[in-house]
Design goal:
Two copies of one chain form a homodimer. Chain A is mostly helical. Chain A has helices spanning 12-35, 40-51, 63-87, 90-95, 97-121, 132-142, 148-157, 164-191, 198-230, 238-256, 261-272, 278-302, 314-335, 348-354, 360-371, 377-402. In chain A, helix 2 packs across helix 12 (278-302), helix 8 (164-191) packs across helix 9 (198-230) and helix 8 packs parallel to helix 15 (360-371). The longest helix of chain A is centred in the middle third of the chain and has 33 residues, at 198-230. The relative contact order of chain A is 0.17.
């Protein structure tokens, strides 16, 4: 049997070569990061910047190859959050649930409020079409949602997933995602010119929460019985394949139900952590995730355009000015969230720093704003920079607060 | 961080749901096949037929989702052949090299000759544009290349990869691929109206053989030293990620050099089987491969159109008639190849049956023929049927000859 290099439109040989480059660069720079005392994920992000469109152009960004990388990256983040769900102790999560909720709400409300106020009341470059209120809502929205992927990976690299702080952060980041969905639906409506509807906001919120609760409750009851049957099958790696299929299926269901893919992935992990075959599943999922999660982090890095940092260009100077303000708001707004739950004993600075990274959500909001004309290219660039800086400061910050990396597992 | 359901054009939720269905169906029908005493891969092919466009339509066949499935399937076959390369004992392969060569050559020449003769000298339905010679070359070509993926998977399912027969078959199938490349270049030239050039044939052959020899010789010398450095890195799963990246990279290189992707994948496996970290790599690659190889077999099954089997339709009857002739030629032409190397002691019927399955190569040839107008839809359908039947008869045939399946490894 013979596989053609260019069967069906995509140049598969070229695509696989890019994939090989992504994997090797991710590991080499991840190693470099660890050697200089930083978490590996920081190196993977830098690898992405280097391989991205503004430097080497190795990571496909457009057309079908771009879509392919995007889907593989989504598979990577899905597997990462599935692993996180597997490692989640539900009772521990409930114990810190009130703290997570408080951290999430403060961490969304404060940056949104500060961002809105900055845009509405402080002088800054022109904001494109639409009213000042509309663009201020957009700027505020881009500042809200924590990238649980980055933080979870750092905590995992540092071997700190079982700490009180990690539980609060992961819980808050998942709640953040639910709030992010609500904000997204509001923002999309605003971009389309619609009025903000309280009913719509409540409905989005109810769907996301309802999905998580029903999935975990029903799943924890039914799925362990199902997997007791699966384990009696004889075909190779049947547990692993069913577990991954379950994560894929529940993620899709979450999205179809109007919630987020990754909420389904976390739920799938939490549900499977209650099965008798939990150890085998976790042991076998790890190598699969280890291939795909670097693709996610490299592609996040690759979306950064280094030309935005050139201080000799006048448009870049405006962008840098706005970006500076957004960065300060983004960091302060999440740091204070660490102090949102005074009734729970925890290292509040660790929680605050853990909530700082913004990932693709901010980029998605900014992209909707740009395409609808509400945000100018400069503001879009500033949001990109904010996402980049918050993503890059959190890993060394957490590392400095939490100490040395654990010994390698692979 | 929040992953959108439909970011960037592809409906990721829908795609992941299809993927989940593919994985679950593959394992359920694989299990069913094993329970009735057949190899699991047969069940995965049937799962593909059921999920394919002619029945349930779950497997995406067109557009970007179709490309995605195609790339994931290629990744699956690449990982499968990489695993096969890892399990290959090079000395043992060389010991049976002359037998493999003889089996490959007879198994290509006899079906090609019989196919050509049938088409040129026996009455049959109309053959579209072009001369009878051109279409006869096409029909002959579709009958030549063995699908090493199917046979290797069956041998692996049966726990017979370490037998004399398996070595001869795998070696012959790889050589077959090299010959397939030569035939493909000839056939493509014929479709474009070019004369067959001896120089072109020799060049294609030399590139493919040269690549394999140089890659393995240089690789066996350099790569073990490289991996002794890689193993000293501290980041997680660094060996696995480098091994997969090496397989992807060498496969691309093979394709760019004018050879086939999967020749690169086999070569990568053979090279890494000489490293000191061989055990860890094999242990960690398996779960990754177990997720992706079923996608390949399901997508092969999904390309089968069951409507071609409807005997009440007149066009289907013509197709069935031609298909019957091609099937007889395809099976007999490869069975005799088992007797091509009388100087090597082996079970010749096992080797013959092992060479019978035709996979996507036949489909690729037929597709080129159809698109260039050399083959009619009926003949294309007949080739599809031939590929399907040869693919489906080999697993139970080998199983009957080789005995019981091994206990499950997962």
């Amino acid at each position: 049997m013979l596989a053609l290099a260019a069967a069906g439109g995509v140049d598969i040989a070229r695509f696989f070569l890019a994939l090989a480059a992504i994997l090797i660069a991710a590991k080499l720079l991840g190693e470099l990061a660890e050697r200089i005392g930083q978490p590996a994920v920081l190196g993977e992000l830098v690898a992405g910047v280097l391989l991205g469109g503004s430097v080497l152009g190795v990571v496909p960004g457009t057309g079908v190859p771009g879509e392919l990388i995007h889907v593989l990256a989504e598979l990577g983040v899905l597997l990462l959050l599935f692993e996180i769900g597997l490692e989640t102790d539900l009772r521990e999560m409930f114990r810190v649930g009130s703290a997570s909720l408080a951290v999430a709400i403060v961490g969304v409300v404060v940056p949104f409020g500060l961002g809105y106020a900055y845009w509405a009341y402080v002088p800054h470059p022109a904001v494109g079409e639409g009213s000042l209120v509309t663009s201020a809502i957009f700027v505020g929205a881009t500042l809200t949602a924590t990238s649980v992927g980055i933080t979870a990976r750092v905590l995992s690299d540092l071997g700190k997933m079982a700490t009180q702080e990690a539980r609060v952060i992961i819980g808050a980041a998942v709640i953040d995602d639910v709030l992010g969905l609500v904000i997204l639906s509001v923002v999309s409506g605003v971009a389309a010119g619609a009025a903000v509807s309280i009913l719509g906001v409540v409905r989005t919120l109810a769907v996301a929460i309802g999905f998580l609760v029903v999935a975990v409750l029903v799943g924890r009851f039914l799925v362990p019985r199902l997997f007791d049957l699966v384990v009696r099958m004889r075909v190779r790696y049947v547990l692993l394949v069913f577990a991954v299929a379950f994560a894929l299926g529940l993620s899709s269901l979450a999205a179809v139900a109007g919630s987020a893919l990754i909420i389904g992935a976390v739920a799938a992990g939490i549900i499977l952590s209650g099965t008798n075959q939990f150890d085998t599943i976790e042991h076998e999922v790890r190598p699969v995730a280890s291939i795909f999660t670097p693709i996610f982090f490299v592609s996040v890095g690759a979306s950064v355009d280094l030309r935005l940092l050139d201080p000799t260009s006048p448009s870049a100077r405006g962008t840098l000015l706005v970006a500076g303000a957004l960065i300060v708001i983004a960091i302060l707004g999440k740091l204070v969230a660490g102090w949102a739950a005074p009734w729970v004993p925890m290292r509040r600075l660790v929680v605050g720093v853990g909530m700082v990274p913004r990932g693709e959500v901010g980029l998605i909001f900014a992209d909707i704003g740009r395409r609808s004309g509400v945000l100018t290219e400069e503001v879009f660039g500033a949001v990109l920079l904010m996402v980049m800086v918050t993503t890059f400061v959190a890993p060394p910050g957490l590392k400095a607060l939490l100490g040395t990396a654990r010994p390698p597992a692979g």
